[in-house]
């Protein structure tokens, strides 16, 4: 049926017999122009333009007459004759159009993509003319070419040669899965109109050879100078270098002013040297171990994980290019780069992504195998995360990691099939054809700029060495490496081609090699010219955030007048805005809080912190699952009209010149979203960036981001990051998966003052803590064990005076009116368990037990804590009480912080749940029994000896 419609549209659309069909199409066009095929839409547009004196809803009679005129004036006589085509000829014509469509859909399976030619070309029946009942007798018959961007009529033989040249050569184009007709027709015009050939001048070809010479030359030089050292070479995939050069130069011409690149270690040193202009001498120092660690990097990192930034000249001015730091976790850099790009676009006001471009470079097995790739694609068009389309480059070396076989690394035909989930076009290209690589690079860049969607370049190549240079790949891939050892390099093949074309001479080719090697030996920069001392208008000055002490003062209070104004603005909504009854009740409660008639609860205190920050010009970005309302329905930063479905965010209407407040209900992802927010925070220190887990333990799904970036990025790479993680934590009997945020893991990662771990217990504490994070010029991650049941606990409240006075308290001493001289033992705790201890003590009328809360577990506030303990000189017994099992929570990571107490002759004991494999029990009665037991032991001082065998004397 579709073939017949195609035939109708391309051979007889202008005939009178199709008037009713045309009128129906035109009726649809008048109602919605996008509802008809682009080719028909263009024709109707022409009619409207030709009928300038008539109203847009011109009658159908003029439509028919306009089509008749177009038929007479614009249609070649050869096409008019097809309107009287015999049934047999019509069937043949339809078969030709089906054949063309088959090549558009499946021609990539016939294309010669593998430089090694190890795999047979797949037998695809519907690419064979015989499948469509077209034989040798039809080869010289002239047919309409339909929607091909080709001459209107061609002999079948020429049509077949045409579609093979476009779709079955060294480029395999996958785009027919895209549902947007405009995008498909745009791609067809580009690939068919040019016959998938790059229009390169002699100078272009010489420059292309120069880049291949550089890519190959660096690897050979390092291979001979640093024998056996790991460098994860690009050999076999050298076409990546001209590909990146073309992207940057073409992007610069199109107005791209910043490029952020994310890639793993394969080829990284080559990109650093030949694209970003890193000095060879600096690279050689790293190989030779002469590079001294920088003072702000306590551990540093290996050379093939390091990032870099530079400014590269392009035809339309400089382009700032950044290569992100990346550990050996491959694809995890993808969301980090996307977050960094979003921050850069935000700074520029670049809403469409016209000025900042993300480029993500992948390995074939990692692209197919790692879930963060799918998560990153899922973010690509989501409102809070889109960056206007990314260009993905897959360095497809056909081996994967060390010993893998493609049959073992995926279940799909191509490693790139995951990209079809967002209908991204995929261009497979033979890496040994550099001109084809340049063609798809230009195509991908122009597609991204036109449609602001992701696009994939699958650079099919090979790996001349093993996983690293000390590996022997032939042990597991004997046939592949027999072929590789005999295979000329990409640079050698292209040099021979240009010599044959008369573009260069053999001597010129040899001179290129010698000149590049000479530049390396002279330690000269070998990349394009880079700019120095550039007055970059969007540069972030990191100097104010460097070398800041933890005790740096920050006044986090606000005046009573300001607090009143902020509170009232948070309670405003447009006139007639119909709130849900439960939300209306919450707002009424907050009105009482604003006047002091009711103590401030957690949700209102938190929103006041955001309001104060944006009012002072500090942007806030908050993302996570359900974070607009709050998983536990406490925040309600976004209000929803129950009659219209419209939303209203009071925090975006605090004051006339306020900073931006953005709250995003994220996709159901932890790894990619947290990586995105980390990338955003490391790029924009002037904004408060927060990620909230739906439950604290959901962060387990993003552990690689926490381990490799958040906790260690400063030590390895010298990066500053003020990201805040809100992790709901507390034992309410909900079972193993909804109790613990795994506090112990974060404390275990703490060292060298790399991050903060806080457990605030009052709304005023979270208010001052969040404000301190921005007002103190220190940009270190803040991990917050945030509450669940405390969100509505009658004691977990604050007065208005607590917001206008004081500040964040790392330790809170005894708050009840107890006589220090009567205290027999002290209970030290953190988090929700404090309120259970407090209520139980009050209920029992105990006045001999003091309770101290530690609100900042790291960096541990030694001086404050010791000063509070010193108020009870007669007390010898100190109990650490926690809800979590003994091998979890804070105990194992914090008990060494109390060594000064032992020096003063005091005894330290543990009270809590016994060690356990799971974070919490799943049976509520047992949970209650355990909770009552630990509260009783802590208050009575009756210690369980089995959990205190190593109690200090």
TrEMBL record:
Annotated InterPro entries: 2-oxogl_dehyd_N, 2oxoglutarate_DH_E1, DH_E1, KGD_C_sf, ODO-1/KGD_C, THDP-binding, Transketolase-like_Pyr-bd
One GO MF term: oxoglutarate dehydrogenase (succinyl-transferring) activity
Enzyme class: oxidoreductase
Transmembrane segments annotated in the record for this chain: none
Residue ranges occupied by any Transketolase-like pyrimidine-binding domain in the UniProt entry: 600-793
Keyword Oxidoreductase: yes
Superkingdom of this protein's organism: Bacteria
EC numbers for this chain: 1.2.4.2
Keyword Oxidoreductase on entry: yes
Keyword annotations: Glycolysis, Oxidoreductase, Thiamine pyrophosphate
Cofactor(s) recorded in Swiss-Prot or TrEMBL: thiamine diphosphate
One of the record's GO cellular component terms: cytosol
GO biological process: glycolytic process; tricarboxylic acid cycle
Quaternary structure annotation from Swiss-Prot or TrEMBL: Homodimer. Part of the 2-oxoglutarate dehydrogenase (OGDH) complex composed of E1 (2-oxoglutarate dehydrogenase), E2 (dihydrolipoamide succinyltransferase) and E3 (dihydrolipoamide dehydrogenase); the complex contains multiple copies of the three enzymatic components (E1, E2 and E3).
Task of the protein: E1 component of the 2-oxoglutarate dehydrogenase (OGDH) complex which catalyzes the decarboxylation of 2-oxoglutarate, the first step in the conversion of 2-oxoglutarate to succinyl-CoA and CO(2).
Family membership: Belongs to the alpha-ketoglutarate dehydrogenase family.
Protein name: 2-oxoglutarate dehydrogenase E1 component
UniProt organism field: Sedimenticola thiotaurini
């Amino acid at each position: 049926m579709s073939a017949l419609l195609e035939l109708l549209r391309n051979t007889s659309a202008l005939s009178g017999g199709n008037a009713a069909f045309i009128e129906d199409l035109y009726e649809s066009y008048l109602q919605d122009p996008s509802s008809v095929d682009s080719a028909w839409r263009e024709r109707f547009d022409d009619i409207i333009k030709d009928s300038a004196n008539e109203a847009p809803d011109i009658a159908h009679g003029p439509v028919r007459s306009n089509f008749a005129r177009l038929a007479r004036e614009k249609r070649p006589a050869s096409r008019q004759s097809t309107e009287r085509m015999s049934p047999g000829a019509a069937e043949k014509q339809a078969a030709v159009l089906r054949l063309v469509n088959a090549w558009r859909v499946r021609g990539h399976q016939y294309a010669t993509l593998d430089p090694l030619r190890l795999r047979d070309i797949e037998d695809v029946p519907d690419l064979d003319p015989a499948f469509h009942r077209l034989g040798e007798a039809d080869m010289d018959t002239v047919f309409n070419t339909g929607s091909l961007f080709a001459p209107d009529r061609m002999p079948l033989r020429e049509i077949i040669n045409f579609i093979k040249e476009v779709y079955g050569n060294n480029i395999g184009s996958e785009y027919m899965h895209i549902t947007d007709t405009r995008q498909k027709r745009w791609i067809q015009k580009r690939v068919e109109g040019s016959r998938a050939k790059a229009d390169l001048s002699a100078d272009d070809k010489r420059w292309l050879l120069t880049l291949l010479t550089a890519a190959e030359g660096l690897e050979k030089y390092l291979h001979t100078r640093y024998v056996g050292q790991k460098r994860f070479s690009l050999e076999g995939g050298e076409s990546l270098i001209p590909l990146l050069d073309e992207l940057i130069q073409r992007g610069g011409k199109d107005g791209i002013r910043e490029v952020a690149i994310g890639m793993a270690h394969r080829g990284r040193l080559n990109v650093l040297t030949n694209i970003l202009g890193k000095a060879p001498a600096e690279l050689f120092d790293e190989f030779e171990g002469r590079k001294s660690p920088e003072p702000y990097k306590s551990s540093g990192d290996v050379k093939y994980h390091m990032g870099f930034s530079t400014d590269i000249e392009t035809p339309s001015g400089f382009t700032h290019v950044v290569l992100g730091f990346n550990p050996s976790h491959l694809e995890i850099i993808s969301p980090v780069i996307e977050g960094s790009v979003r921050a850069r676009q935000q700074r520029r006001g670049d809403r469409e992504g016209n000025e900042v471009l993300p480029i993500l470079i992948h390995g074939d097995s990692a692209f197919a195998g790692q879930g963060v790739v799918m998560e990153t694609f899922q973010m690509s068009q989501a409102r809070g995360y889109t960056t206007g389309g990314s260009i993905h480059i897959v360095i497809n070396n056909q081996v994967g990691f060390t010993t893998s076989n493609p049959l073992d690394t995926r279940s799909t035909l191509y490693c790139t099939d995951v990209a079809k989930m967002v209908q991204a076009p995929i261009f497979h290209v033979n890496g040994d054809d550099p001109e084809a690589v340049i063609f798809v690079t230009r195509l991908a860049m122009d597609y991204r700029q036109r449609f602001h969607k992701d696009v994939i370049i699958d650079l099919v190549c090979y790996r001349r060495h093993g996983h690293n240079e000390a590996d022997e790949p032939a042990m597991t891939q004997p046939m592949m490496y027999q072929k590789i050892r005999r295979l000329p390099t990409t640079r050698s093949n292209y040099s021979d081609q240009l010599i044959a074309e008369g573009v260069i001479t053999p001597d010129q080719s040899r001179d290129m090699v010698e000149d590049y090697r000479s530049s390396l030996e002279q330690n000269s920069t070998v990349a394009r010219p880079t700019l120095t001392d550039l007055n970059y208008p969007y540069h972030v000055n990191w100097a104010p955030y460097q070398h800041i002490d933890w005790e740096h003062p920050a006044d986090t209070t606000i005046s009573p007048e300001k607090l009143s104004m902020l509170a009232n603005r948070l309670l405003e909504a447009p006139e007639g805005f119909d709130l849900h009854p439960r939300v209306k009740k919450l707002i009424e409660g907050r009105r009482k809080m604003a006047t002091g008639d009711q103590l401030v609860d957690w949700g209102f205190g938190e929103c006041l912190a955001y309001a104060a920050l944006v009012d002072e010009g500090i942007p806030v970005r908050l993302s996570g699952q359900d974070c607009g309302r709050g998983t536990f329905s406490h925040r309600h930063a976004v209000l929803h009209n129950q009659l219209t479905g419209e939303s209203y965010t009071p925090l975006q209407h605090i004051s006339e010149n306020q900073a931006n407040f953005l709250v995003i209900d994220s996709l159901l992802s932890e790894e990619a979203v947290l990586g995105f927010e980390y990338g955003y925070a490391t790029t924009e220190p002037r904004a408060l960036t927060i990620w909230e887990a739906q439950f604290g333990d959901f962060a387990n799904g993003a552990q690689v981001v926490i381990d490799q970036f958040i906790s260690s990025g400063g030590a390895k790479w010298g990066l500053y990051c003020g990201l805040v993680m809100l992790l709901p934590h507390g034992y309410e009997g909900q079972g193993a998966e909804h109790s613990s945020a795994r506090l112990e893991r974060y404390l275990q990662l703490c060292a060298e003052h790399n991050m903060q771990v806080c457990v605030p217990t009052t709304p005023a504490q979270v208010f001052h803590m969040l404000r301190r994070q921005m007002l103190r010029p220190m940009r270190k991650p803040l991990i917050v064990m945030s509450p669940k049941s405390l969100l509505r606990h009658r004691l977990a409240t604050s007065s208005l005076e607590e917001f206008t006075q004081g500040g964040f308290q790392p330790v809170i001493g005894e708050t009840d009116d107890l006589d220090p001289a009567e205290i027999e033992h002290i209970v030290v705790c953190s988090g929700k368990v404090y309120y259970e201890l407090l209520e139980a003590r009050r209920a029992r009328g105990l006045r001999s037990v003091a309770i101290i809360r530690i609100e900042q577990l790291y960096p541990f506030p030694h001086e404050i804590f010791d000063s509070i303990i010193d108020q009870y000189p007669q007390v010898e017994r100190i109990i650490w009480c926690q809800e979590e099992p003994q091998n979890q929570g804070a105990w194992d990571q914090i008990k060494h912080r109390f060594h000064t107490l032992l020096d003063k002759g005091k005894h330290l004991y543990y009270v809590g749940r016994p060690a356990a494999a799971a974070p919490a029990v799943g049976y509520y009665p047992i949970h209650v029994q355990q909770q009552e037991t630990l509260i009783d032991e802590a208050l009575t001082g009756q210690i369980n000896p089995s959990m205190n065998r190593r109690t200090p004397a």
